[in-house]
Batch of 3 targets.
Target 1
Amino acid sequence: MPSNSLQSWHNSRRIQLEEIIEAHRAVGGTGRGRRYATEQVNHAYAVLLSSQFQGFCRDLHSECVQHIVQGVPAPLQNVLRGEFVRDRKLDRGNPNPGNIGADFARLGLRIWETVGALDMRNDARKQLLDELSNWRNAIAHQDFDPMKLGGRATLRLNDVNRWRRACDQLARAFDKVTRTHLRALVGSVPW
């Protein structure tokens, strides 16, 4: 059974992402050819994807924390929970590899090493997540430096769709490795 976070990723978060795809179709149509108005929709799609993946990662981290603290005496649960989420990077920063790695490391999980060992394609997905984060920052700060964006300053729908597939696979991998880690850490299956 998947975590509540992964279920949300596949349901409510997916629906929100599909809504922007529908907006893209409405603005640009479905035929071939360059659609100038769609670039702004591509920007919105990239920012939404980044925010939805950030929400998934933060929710998964919270679920992990809850599973860990439920085994300690009730008076200590809030104290311990507070320590696990204090200055959590996913509460205020992008879901880039560094922030995700730092937050899950507080739970004793080297998430990037673990998902890399699970499937070697996850290393490439991690790079795609980093690209998404760079584009999200470029859009949010209106700083389209081609040197930071893979040599170009135009975002295409195919780019965002590729990032979305990477996020989907990473979400599944994160769910699996956190489940295994928590079972080993506290001796019970979290979900």
Target 2
Amino acid sequence: MAKRISLRDFQRGLSERLLSARRGQGGQTLLGVESGAEHLAGGNHWLVDLADSGEVVPLTRLTPAPLTKSWFAGIANIRGVLYSVVDFSAWRGGAPTPHNAQSRLLLIGARHGISSALLVNRALGLRTRLQLRAAGDDAGRTAGSLPANLPGAASWLGGRFTDEQDLTWTQLRIPALLADPNYLDIAL
């Protein structure tokens, strides 16, 4: 049975880990998110370098943008800043991400001067490199598993790792994703 802790203790622990990660202590810290299905390029468990991840916010009301591709979820106003929102599952050729209480926006572009966010199924918490081991396969990196609209996916697909529960994680290279022409081309 999982250990139960109060919300205050959880927030305090998370705050301490975030501060530790920003100071470079405890190994490289990665943010885990879930997006899409296992058969999609990279699988459904993703790791994002905490320095690139920006912020995770609950899904807010999205304003649709006309004449955009189906995977472009819309525009979100987060504290007065407009973010373009890409449904990460749909962009990789999967089903659209459900809009529910667990859905999150991962604000990924601020550090790189781009107001961009990924719509993901849910945030799964922090992981350190010490908790992961390199996966023996490159199943998420093979071109055969990529939709035709993602020919340059190898640039944003990082290493694959396995955790203690034998879940396979793929690292998402945010700078490469933000530079990918397929990611930037939202017009029909």
Target 3
Amino acid sequence: MAIVFTQVDIAAEADDIWAILTEFDAYPAWNPVIRRVSAKPDGGLAISLHPPGQIAFVFRMRVIESRRAQRLIMDGHCLFPRFLDWRHQIDIETAATVSTLRQTARFTGHLIKPTPNFMMRPVRNAFARMNEAVRDMAEARRRAD
């Protein structure tokens, strides 16, 4: 198993951060990694990723838990189950006027077993860039209000 954890403090309300994270059609305009999120007929999601300097790929995801403005947990895989599986957890906690956005991703599968650190640095960097983009958008919206 390989784990990636990132967090960022954001001077915005949890609802504003949640709105950005769940507005899937807007991802291509601001997200440095996720190029498209598409709903599947079975209720799942197809998430097209293209981390900078890496190959593009698609994860099939299903929502495991969703608590508005607090937590989103998704499970998924790339190509087929057990090749590259991914559990992605997003948590938002607010204290006073600052919210903390945390992302944790756990990767398992045949691709991870021989080289658990193979993709982790680019994934960590991609998550950090995504967190920064969410922070910048949420704080800009707050200043505009």
